Amino acid sequence: MKCLSWGKVAVTALLGTLLLTGCASDKATRVVDTKVDLVDVIDDVSSALLNSAVKGMSKERTILATSFVNIDDLQQSSTFGRLVGDTVASDLVNRGYNVMEVRLRNSLFMQPRLGEFMLSRELRNVGAEHDAQAVLVGTYAIGGDYVYVNVRLVSVMNSQVLSSHDFRLPLNRDIRKMLTSGR
């Protein structure tokens, strides 16, 4: 049995460390460079949302659509929040649902500590005026490598969550830019 010299042991250890470091930085690079087809992701989200609805959603009655907000500051949205909300609404329209866009920032009473939406009397009035059955709402949370999104259809009449779906997207360059712009 041959004895390895300290020099060979040091070189082997250094190479091992470099290889492990290379793998770690490669992972971070991959997340940043990950391409996402947001339209395809939203198509899957809309399908899941409609398929899991507590009551069947009527295509004749209106769904009110809002911008999605940062879960850590429910009065804050971003280009990302507006785009995801608009894209889900657009997908619902393409499926034949009657969707009306409303910007409800001042019409929603928000409980910041609980992160919950409570539909206000004003929203109920808007819902009744347009024969709305539900409002499309969503929140997003920014993590280390991903942004986590929750989408809900909420009854205009009693605030019951009719359907909910969660998904995540990698924090690539495009999504990071959208999260920090347009606030």
UniProtKB/TrEMBL annotation:
Sequence ranges assigned to domain FlgO in this UniProt record: 49-173
Superkingdom of the source species: Bacteria
A Pfam family this chain is assigned to: FlgO
Protein name: FlgO domain-containing protein
Keywords: Signal
Signal sequence interval, chain numbering: 1-24
InterPro entries (alphabetical): FlgO_dom
